[in-house]
What we know:
Layout: H1 3-17, E1 20-21, E2 27-28, E3 53-56, E4 58-74, E5 78-81, E6 86-90, E7 97-98, E8 103-107, E9 110-116, H2 133-144, H3 159-171, E10 185-188, E11 192-197, E12 204-205, E13 210-215, E14 219-226, E15 238-242, E16 248-256, E17 261-264, E18 271-281, H4 283-286, E19 292-310, E20 315-316, E21 322-328, E22 331-343, E23 346-350, E24 359-362
Parallel strand pairs: 9-10
Antiparallel strand pairs: 1-2, 3-24, 4-14, 4-19, 5-13, 6-8, 6-12, 7-11, 8-9, 11-13, 14-18, 15-16, 15-19, 16-18, 17-18, 19-23, 20-21, 21-22, 22-23
Main location: other
InterPro entries: Peptidoglycan-bd-like, PGBD-like_sf, PGBDSf, UPF0194_transport
Subcellular location: Cell envelope
Amino acid sequence: MNGRLKGVVAALGTAVVGSAVTAGGVFASAALFDTGPHAKAEPTPTARPVSAATKEITRGDLVDKESVDGKLTYADSRTIKSAGAGTITSLPAEGKVIKRGKSLYSVDRRPRVLMYGKLPAYRTLEDGVKRGPDVKQLEQNLRTLGFARGVTVDTRFTDATERAVRRWQKKNGMERDGEVTPADVVFLPESVRVGRTSVEVGDQVGSVRPILDVTSTDRLVRINLDADKQDIAKKGRKVTVKMADGKSVKGKITRVAKVAKVADRSGNQEKGATVEVEITVSAKAAGSLDEAPVTVELNRQRAENVLTVPVEALLALPEGGYGIEVVEPAGARRVQVKTGAFGNGRVEVSGPGLTEGMKITVSGR
């Protein structure tokens, strides 16, 4: 094995062994790269013709990339259940986005309409009902939809509220009785996307039977990260998501589970603890596919503001240790170096006279 090849093999070994951080915060090399004190340049460097490809010494932060398989889906999944008995007479198509004032489904041709709010419908709202925040929530929706002429948005169900309800019922082809029951509306925080339906048109349903699943329109990537690697998944940290079509999009970690779960790993009987990590991505960039496989790249910073070279630039020196070839006008000069942290195909180096921007030779590139 030639000197450069030995250097590359040894450097790759560092990726497995890793780098340790000293008490003073300085990255110490792994055993494979430990060459003792800073070595000196060859006493009498001999310039040689440059026969290999060249790259530059760079300065910056050194990071490792951890790739984890995940799935692209939609956030905030929930199931809508029926609030009364009857026959399903209409259902939305899977993937359809339903906004405020639109029907989620119909029973006996009576639509159940989506309205925005955090408090679920739990009682019939009608003249004489006790005041409450659910009344105000209904009136806010009626105003936004254009039916609340003369209505003061507060916690009281008044005659004006009843007239607004009748106008809304007329518009939706409902019985104009001035009452709003839990079978008439579903309150959710925002518009929803229909996932899958659990019934078909013509099915007979009773109360609390699952009708359809909905999600928000926000895109989300979920990964299960090995628990011993959760230090690289911090809330707010940016990541790269590689889509199934090869396109890469930017994402941001929005949730890291606090409790690890143990599950069978795919392909063998070994078990390992994982933590669920959620990553938000742009809906426009992510497209419309649900449950699509993706790969998430997370970064672990190994060293800050250091000189680095590609691993393939390292040479195993006959006298021991490692070196690089610096390209000068007269040819290539060999410089012995001390190696440090490794990450993403590059290795930290230090040595006499090395500076950012110097050209060095690399093998096979």
